[in-house]
Amino acid sequence: MQRLLGGALKFGNHVFRGKRHLFESLQKGQKPTALFITCADSRICPTLITQTDPGELFVIRNAGNIVPPAGSAGGEAATIEYAINALGIRDIIVCGHSHCGAMAGALDHPDGIEGLPFLSQWLRHVAAARGVVLAEYAGAPREQQLEILTEANVLLQIEHLSTHPVVARALARDELDIHGWIYRFETGHISSFELATGKFREISELLNELPADAESVPGLAADFRSSPMIRAIRGD
Question: To the nearest 5 percent, what fractions of the chain are helix, strand and coil?
């Protein structure tokens, strides 16, 4: 706790002063450019890995970067609704990460984790992805299964995200784009799901391949269901 107190003091005395104009401008309101949905894991800092300032990202964090389907209880639906309808956000990023404890729990303990009943119930939102991974990669090493589950879970949560009426409407009007990311903290690299190849590819590669007139790496928009992994998860 002493480290946190010291950090708070340093922020007020030094960091804040260096960015006083930024922080003073924030009292007028926020205009984030994206909703960033990621894991609660302490090894991830959304603003650090995207090099953004306060006010640029609207963030949802929970164990496993999970988005329960529409109709589920919880604060995720309210936050998504506010992001789109009140803040006018046009990009949503679902970001998983390497060595995720929640994904390991979902993979290794399908019947629940002893002593963690609430987490066990929460991880039921990963079950469809786990089922596909075990069916299609039954003979793969456990570490490979975990990596594939982490990727499949990002796509599953994007599928869940699309069931929310506010998201479905925005996608239908071409007012929203959705991006699936994987952050690997051991390398610092971020991969984005590319619909054309059906794979997560490093952002640096995707940016290098962009046409000169392209503004950004394309997201999944309403076409994400054409992904073989999504079709397998949906049982199509």
Answer: 50, 15, 35
What are the tokens at 1?
């706790």
Residue found under tokens 């570490």: 143
User: 102: closest CA among 154, 163, 46?
Assistant: 154
User: 216: closest CA among 79, 83, 85, 93?
Assistant: 93
Q: Same domain, yes or no, for 4 and 40? A: no
Measured from the Cβ of residue 215, the count of other Cβ atoms closer than 10 Å reads 6
Do 17 and 90 have their domain in common?
no
pTM value > 0.85: yes
In the chain, how many domains are there?
2
| Per-residue pLDDT tens over the stretch 13-43 | 888 998 999 999 999 999 999 999 999 999 9
Element (H, E) at 102: helix 101-108
With CA atoms as reference, report the closest residue to 181 among 87, 62, 58, 46: 46
* End-to-end Cα distance, the chain: 51
